[in-house]
Amino acid sequence: MTSSSIPVPALELEHVSKRFPVSQGLFKRAATLTAVNDLSLKLMPGETLGLVGESGCGKSTAVNIMLGLLAPDEGRVFLDAREIRTIPLVERVRLIQPVFQDPYSSLNPTKRIIDLVAQPLRLHARGTDPLPAVREMLDRVGFPARLADTYPAELSGGQRQRVAIARALISNPKVLICDEPTSALDVSVQAQVINLLLELRRDLGLTMIFVSHNLAVVEHLADRVAVMYLGEKVEEAPVDPIFAHARHPYTRALLGATLVPEPGAALPVIAMGNANADPLNRGEGCAFAPRCPYAVEACRKGVIHETREGEHCFRCIEPVAA
Question: What range(s) does the ABC transporter domain occupy (predicted)?
Fold first, then answer.
């Protein structure tokens, strides 16, 4: 195989870290919050990567770094084999597009739907009539043609999210980042949006990062899963191995916390101990050690390096048996 035939990652993060100063009051020195720590990810063309973890684990900061909205303190981000900071803004927004969490605040309330979706084409493809492509895209995402001249306030949450997806896809980006796109929607509408993304991935060959704390949705949609805890990637693997044989105790705890849709089923028992995750007081060693039922003294000292077993990698010195 020649080097030219080796597929190039659509998006890649190499040892990315990001920190923020946090005020602790008038008479205390500002603390440092490490939002992302030594994060490496690789997204291949046509692949969907699920990025999961509880609130505050660094998912949204990682997304902002991927989009070029935040510059990392360390590490590099590559988009279409080029370092993202070297790509002009106009070109970058054609290559990567987001679908945000809240469809109620991500659309300009003063513009008609057809103008909202047409705006990227008017900015990047001047001199051509964008309306035929806009109407085709709205039809593809299942948005009723009769509502094209309405305003966002006249739509339901599910309809607004369809508009947001159409706007993100209208310029044919190489990467689509969905940042918890269903969490603000009703359960029935969530299923419609997930099925829409599945159809679009199949029909358009989408390359996606799907950010969520809902493991059931990620299992349904993603090819691979990366699990984050306090800014670190603690485990990554294809969907089937990670759901069947998770190696990191935190991943096991997340999977065990999933509610079972069966009448009479008891609430899940979450094996995370009594300590809380504290991003301002991480200490040495594994960040999950204070909550881990398997932690030993070595877990609380030094750097915990990543272990790789084929396509399955995890950051743990006492992994759960496969």
Answer: 11-255
| Backbone φ and ψ of 114, nearest 5° | -65, -35
Q: How many CB atoms lie within 10 A of CB 191?
A: 15
Phi, psi of 309 (to 5 degrees): -125, 90
- For 4-22, the pLDDT digits (tens) are 567 899 999 999 999 999 8
Stretch 27-45: mean pLDDT:
90
Q: How far apart, in whole angstroms, are the C-alpha atoms of residue 127 and residue 311?
A: 47
What does each C-alpha distance from 158 to 161, 188, 270 come to in angstroms? 5, 9, 32
- Distance between CA atoms of residues 167 and 165, nearest Å: 5
Q: How much is the pLDDT for 257?
A: 72
Q: Could you tell me if 115 and 107 are in contact, meaning their C-beta atoms sit under 8 angstroms apart?
A: no
pLDDT of 269 > 90? The answer is no
- The closest of 44, 93, 69, 320 to 208, measured between CA atoms, is 44
Query: Bridge-partner residues for 41, per DSSP?
Result: 13
List CB contacts of 99: < 8 A, sequence separation 6 or more. Answer: 161, 164, 165, 168, 176, 177, 178, 179, 181
Q: How confident is the model at residue 209 (pLDDT cuts 50, 70, 90)?
A: very high
pTM of the predicted structure, to 2 decimals: 0.89
Q: Does domain 3-222 have CATH number 3.30.565.10?
A: no
The continuous run of DSSP H or E covering 208 comes out as strand 208-212
For residues 316 and 309, the answer to whether their CB atoms sit within 8 Å is no
- In DSSP notation, 273-298 reads -SPPP-TT---SS-TTGGG-TT--GG
pLDDT confidence tier of residue 32, bands split at 50, 70 and 90: confident
Query: Rounded CA gap, 207 and 193, in Å?
Result: 17
